[in-house]
Amino acid sequence: MPIEVKNINKSFISKKNDQLSVLKDINLNIDDGELVCLLGPSGCGKTTLLRLIAGLDQPTSGEIIANGEKVVEPSGDRAVIFQQYSLFPWLTVLQNVTFGLEMTNKGSKEENIETAERYLTRVGLIDFKDSYPHELSGGMKQRVAIIRSLLNHSPILLMDEPFSALDMQNRHKLQEQLIGVWKRFENTIVFVTHDVDEAVYLADKIVIMDKNPGRINKIIEVDIERPRKRDSKEFIALQESIVENLDMVE
Ligand SMILES: Nc1ncnc2c1ncn2[C@@H]1O[C@H](COP(=O)(O)OP(=O)(O)O)[C@@H](O)[C@H]1O
Ligand SMILES: [Mg+2]
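A: This is the predicted complex of the input protein with adenosine-5'-diphosphate.
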């Protein structure tokens, strides 16, 4: 069991000095190699929960165990991919992507370049491999950063709405690639989204959250075969049943 979230409560002190309960009694088990989506409206505590799992912040009570150890600080075993990306401005697109591969020392330099080029080709960025980040649009930069993270080989990937700023076509492409990388490297992935379609496409397990205070409403096991077809009956049926039960009004 790589991640166990046990009786987590998290409060912040508000500006008026009140105690603001953001997460209440969160219990969640994530299996080895599982792809779990946290789905819920803005403000329900998804980012807060991900930050706790990452070790970037500490719970008010309860504990999180990752790979058998209590989470007390960030670790290279749990890579975090946030909504905002940063590329190294002094490296080219190709160098940015191979950077992660070189850090883990897997494969030869040539193999790493070949892998990076293959992924850049798939997202239509191969012609920009020698460009620098400032020469790219925002969406292009995001795609580069996502590929770099995907190829990072972290056993646990924590992703906070990584595709939310992309247009639909690129979002779908990256979702497909995420599944490809996940199958190949068998990472455990916790993926935050407020998009029902994205959760149904990606997840083994969807954790539906409510807000005020943030809590788990329901956990749904998704056993739709992959690759999933958005126009299949079972896909649409699950999507509709989630939408009905989800209070996404913000
Ligand atoms: N550092 C903080 N201090 C005070 N309140 C915070 C802090 N971080 C988050 N919150 C509050 O916690 C709630 C949940 O935030 P967040 O985890 O970002 O939700 P989500 O990612 O689901 O949109 C929000 O009401 C937010 O204002
Ligand atoms: Mg968030």
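The chain has two domains: 3-77+154-245, 89-153. The chain has seven helices and ten strands.
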